[in-house]
């Protein structure tokens, strides 16, 4: 998987820089991926088959040994019943016939003998054996033909203790598997010992035959399944190779192939969908760069227009306020005023595209406002009462709210009766911020109490309220004035940022 991930990274890099990767390297990636992964899969199939064949061979050998043990245990059980009586009767010939009936009359010497049975009498000498040449009668036994100390293996006693009491566990000595049993008479007195040795030649031929069958079946399975796995792996990799080829193309072919592969419900489909999203993001980034360049040019143009336009509007407003004109001239000035205001709104809209985002309003901003109106408060002898039931930071634009609130506080301070109380309350009202300023004094004019549009320039006094309404309207806020019972209340409502 690490190799596949590395190859995929090369493919993605190729899609981004198609001219920077040589054709030979791209062909190497394609050939390596289509060759290595099927080769690995086929190798794993072959190794699995070989391991299964080895396991079956070992299991077959174990079963054959168990069959030999079962036959030996049955023979020993039969001899344990008949041989003690023959020993007591000193009937050597009958004992020899009993031994050869199972082990056979041996003519050849080991290791050609398949099995050997030796009966030891009470004196420790050979009473009878299936091979008198190796173990002559009435002589002490010489175990050299059966003894291979360097390869002795004794089976677990639990394997025979429950089913064959009195029989020792099988002993593996070289090519011989030896079984030993004590012979007892009916009176439970020991009369001798029986040793039965079985050569592995009894099951080796069968093991070779079964091993050949297992090998043939394994080779057949490898010959059948390896090509199938090879073709299936290459078929599974085909969509990935197709996606890699589409990455090297440009234009509609890349989008079409990516869209087709993205419809798949697998990892290749997810990869194709991710690549399609990457292409879309790259295209959006290119469009955004173009729009940013156009926006920067428009902002620079608007900035150059806005500065002289502000001077022209100020001069026009001064002329409207202090000049004496006939009706035709005043209509002309009003027409110029509306046209210049429209130009300024357009310029400000363009400037808003590049204007940095305002910071969030903080509770400390209102404490700063209290400090700023301190001189007016002391000059007028006014007491200021504040209540700020707000969090430390509020998600509204700090600049417009701060400036509008300061304008209203200064207007209220100058309009309040000397020695009266000025109140400033700030609360959270659902998903909006509310600022209220109250002062006791004469009622404002009806024009100021009405909702003046931000683009309307007031005649005479009221410029601070007009500017405050304009600032608040830029951030979606409102300013309302009310006068009841000699108290004027200015209420600011500003929606929170989402």
Model description:
By secondary structure, the protein is an alpha+beta fold. The protein folds into three domains: 25-146 and 156-248, PAS domain (Beta-Lactamase, 2-Layer Sandwich); 249-355, Helix Hairpins (Orthogonal Bundle), CATH 1.10.287; 357-497, Heat Shock Protein 90 (2-Layer Sandwich). Helix content is 58%, strand content 17%. The protein has helices at residues 2-16, 23-88, 92-103, 158-161, 201-247, 252-262, 267-322, 327-352, 363-372, 374-380, 398-415, 446-449, 463-474; strands spanning 115-120, 126-129, 153-154, 171-173, 176-184, 190-199, 360-362, 383-389, 393-397, 421-429, 432-440, 478-484, 487-495. The strands form three sheets. The chain has a six-stranded antiparallel beta sheet with strand order 2-1-6-5-4-3. The model is unreliable at 1-30, 106-112, 156-162 and 452-461 (pLDDT under 50).
Summed up:
Helix content is 58%, strand content 17%.
Question: What features would you highlight for this structure?
Answer:
Helix Hairpins; disordered N terminus; about 60% helix; 3 domains; alpha+beta; Heat Shock Protein 90; transmembrane helix; Beta-Lactamase; phosphorelay sensor kinase activity; five-stranded mixed β-sheet; 13 helices; six-stranded antiparallel β-sheet; single chain; HATPase_dom; about 500 residues; about 15% strand
């Amino acid at each position: 998987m690490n190799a596949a991930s590395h190859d995929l990274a090369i493919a993605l890099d190729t899609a981004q820089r198609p001219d920077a990767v040589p054709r030979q390297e791209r062909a190497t990636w394609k050939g390596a991926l289509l060759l290595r992964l099927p080769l690995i899969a086929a190798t794993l199939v072959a190794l699995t088959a070989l391991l299964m064949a080895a396991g079956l061979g070992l299991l077959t050998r174990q079963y054959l040994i168990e069959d030999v043990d079962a036959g030996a245990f049955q023979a020993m059980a039969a001899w344990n019943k008949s041989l003690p009586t023959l020993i007591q009767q000193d009937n050597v010939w009958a004992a020899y016939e009993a031994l050869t009936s199972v082990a056979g009359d041996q003519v050849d010497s080991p290791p050609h003998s398949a099995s050997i049975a030796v009966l030891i009498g009470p004196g420790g000498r050979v009473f009878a054996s299936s091979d008198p040449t190796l173990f002559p009668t009435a002589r002490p036994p010489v175990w050299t033909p059966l003894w291979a100390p360097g390869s002795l293996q004794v089976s677990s006693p639990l394997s025979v203790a429950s089913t064959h009491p009195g029989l020792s566990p099988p002993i593996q000595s070289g090519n011989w598997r030896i079984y030993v049993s004590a012979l007892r008479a009916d009176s439970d007195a020991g009369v001798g010992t029986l040793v039965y040795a079985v050569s592995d030649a009894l099951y080796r031929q069968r093991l070779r035959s079964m091993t050949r069958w297992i090998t043939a079946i394994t080779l057949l399975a490898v010959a059948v399944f390896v090509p199938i796995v090879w073709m299936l792996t290459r078929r599974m990799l085909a969509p990935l190779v197709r996606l890699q080829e589409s990455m090297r193309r440009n234009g509609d072919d890349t989008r079409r192939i990516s869209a087709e592969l993205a419809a798949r419900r697998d990892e290749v489909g997810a990869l194709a969908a991710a690549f399609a999203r990457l292409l879309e993001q790259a295209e959006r980034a290119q469009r955004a760069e173009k729009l940013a360049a156009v926006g920067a040019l428009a902002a620079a143009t608007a900035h150059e227009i806005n500065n002289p336009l502000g001077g022209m509007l100020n001069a026009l407003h001064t002329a409207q306020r202090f000049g004496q004109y006939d009706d035709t001239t005043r209509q002309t000035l009003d027409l110029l005023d509306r046209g210049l205001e429209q130009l300024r709104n357009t310029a400000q809209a363009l400037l808003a595209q590049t204007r940095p985002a305002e910071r969030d309003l903080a509770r400390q901003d209102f404490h700063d406002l209290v400090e700023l109106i301190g001189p007016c408060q002391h000059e007028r002898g006014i007491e200021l009462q504040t209540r700020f039931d707000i969090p430390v930071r509020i998600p509204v634009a700090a600049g417009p709210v701060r400036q509008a609130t300061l304008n209203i506080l200064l207007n209220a301070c100058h309009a309040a009766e000397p020695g009266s109380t000025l109140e400033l309350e700030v609360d959270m009202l659902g998903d909006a911020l509310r600022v209220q300023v109250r002062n006791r004094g004469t009622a404002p004019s009806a024009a100021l109490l009405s909702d003046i549009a931000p683009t309307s320039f007031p005649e005479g006094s009221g410029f601070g309220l007009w500017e405050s309404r304009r600032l608040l309207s830029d951030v979606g806020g409102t300013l309302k004035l009310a006068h009841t019972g000699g108290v004027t209340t200015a209420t600011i409502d500003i929606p929170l940022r989402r």
